[in-house]
Amino acid sequence: MRLTALAAAAILVAGVANANPVAPTDVAYDDSGAVAESLTGVAGDAANGAKVMTDRGKGNCVACHAVTALSDAPFHGTVAPTLDGVGGVRSEAELRGIVANAKMTFEGSVMPPFYKTTGFTRPGDGYTGKAAPADLAPILTAQEIEDVVAFLATLKD
Amino acid sequence: MKIKALTAVAALMLSAPMAFAEADEDQLIINGDVAMISKTAAAPHLEGALSEVISGWHFRDNETQAMQLDDFDNPGMVFVDLARDAWATAEGTEGKSCASCHGEPEAMAGVKAVYPKWNETAGEVRTLQMQMNDCRTTRMGAEAWKTDAKEALNMEALMAVVSRGMPMNVAIDGPAAETWAKGKEIYYTRYGQLELSCANCHEQNYGNYIRSDHLSQGQIEAFPAYRLKDAALVGVQSRFKGCVRDTRAETFSPGSPEFIALELYVASRGNGLSVEGPSVRN
User: Fold this and answer.
1) According to the model, what pLDDT value does residue A20 have?
2) Which of B161, B172, B211, B239 sits a CA distance of 20 to 30 A from A44?
3) Would A99 be classed as within a structural domain?
4) d(CA B209, CA A59)
5) Which residues of chain B fall below pLDDT 70?
6) Which residues of B are less than 8 Å from A137 in CB distance?
7) β-strands B213-214, B209-210 pairing
């Protein structure tokens, strides 16, 4: 029911939000680190989310997490818990908050923030080792975050 | 409650690889003769951080490990031979070689184990490469080698070989304490857009896999290392640079005060482990 209401709200704001995604500095995390509102108002594309999760230059989530549904991509890490079943126990709001900035949910987590652009120590320009440009982009775009969240939501068992 | 159950299941599933992928039980004995201390109790200053310190050798696959067991199979040993020649070759305006002042390279036994080290006259902590450069510039009238330049790494590898098996024993107190503390701070700082510190990977997660990489403790008692990927010797500070770059950070440069401090600190984390270079790594 909550989901339906949320979806309806998303559709309402979609036109505006699409052109103007929530900026990384404006993301509204609740006390437990969840983010209720879609960052773009556009429904996530789970298939693209799966790609982002295995792409080394993007999410590279499988560097740390094992995900059975992504076993086509070689070598999953053991640094973090498996994500199998996570869509059955976590709401989309929780998943969105964790992917955008996991430290809002898990204090001191080793999981990197994927939708954050400020507050870093010696931020670099990607993997070049050089200093970051002044307008550092988040590692994932707002829509890529939504796509990843949509994929995670499919991991029900 | 459901979340707890998931976590429990995850813990069960992962406990096998995590607990047993840590470090293997193989023995590091070089040429069937020189037994290395490749695992030992951590130094007192690591209390609360690590209980045991382990050579990176234990985290490599059998094939890579085997290359280090015999000097004939260790591709790093070629560079040690080059360094033996360089040791006895006069260079610079004074017409002197290392041998002119120090005799045989074997006279340097034990030196590698205590570097980086405070230099009283200079009033600074010096890495072994800095000390070698001091000899080159002030005693030989030769040019300093750049940090981690080929010649510097070759000579450092020779210095490692003549100290082989001796336990690392880097001083962290007295006048070195300030530099050591700075290195420690760097070790625990979360750099870059990935917000990862050395400790996040090498203290919290050694034994785990990050994608296909088996994380070691990031110790440096086995440097310089022959890296199969580069087909060359790699120096400590160049390795640091690569790891910092991988956090999507602006790196420090080899030879910078930050990396000198970090080298002292990381070396001290390996106190008690045998000097092992040149090691073989992938």
Assistant:
1) 87
2) B211
3) yes
4) 17
5) 1-21
6) none
7) antiparallel
Phi and psi based region of residue B197 (left: phi greater than 0; alpha: psi -120 to 50; beta: remaining): beta
Other Cβ atoms less than 10 A from the Cβ of B39: the count is: 16
Q: Which residues of B touch A76 (CB under 8 A)?
A: 209, 211
Q: Which of B2, B195, B247 sits opposite A113 (nearest CB)?
A: B195
Residue A105 or residue A11, greater confidence: A105
| pLDDT one-digit tens code per residue, A25-81 | 999 999 999 999 999 999 999 999 999 999 999 999 999 999 999 999 999 999 999
Question: Which residue from A78, A85, A122 is facing B208, i.e. has the nearest CB?
Answer: A78
Residue B175's pLDDT is 97
Instruction: Find chain B residues with C-beta within 8 A of A126's C-beta.
Output: 248
- In chain B, count H helices and then E strands: 10, 11
Cβ contact, residue pair B7, A81, below 8 Å: yes
* Residue B196, strand partner residues: B191
* Residue A139 covered by a domain: yes
pLDDT digits (tens, 9 = 90+) for B119-144: 999 999 999 999 999 999 999 999 99
The residue type of B168 is M
d(CA B156, CA B240): 17
Structural domain total, chain A:
1
The tokens of B42 are what?
């951590």
Give me the pLDDT at residue A157, please. Answer: 80
Nearest neighbour of B241 by CB, restricted to A89, A113, A129: A129
Whether A14 is covered by a domain: the verdict is: no
pLDDT tens-digit map of A116-131: 999 999 999 999 999 9
Q: Write the CATH number for A124.
A: 1.10.760.10
For chains A and B, count residue pairs whose Cβ atoms are closer than 8 Å: 103
- Look at residue A58 and tell me if it is in a domain: yes
Residue A147 has pLDDT above 60, yes or no: yes
Residues of A with CB under 8 A from a CB of B: 56, 60, 62-64, 66, 74-79, 81-82, 85-86, 88-90, 103, 110, 112-113, 116, 120-132, 136, 139
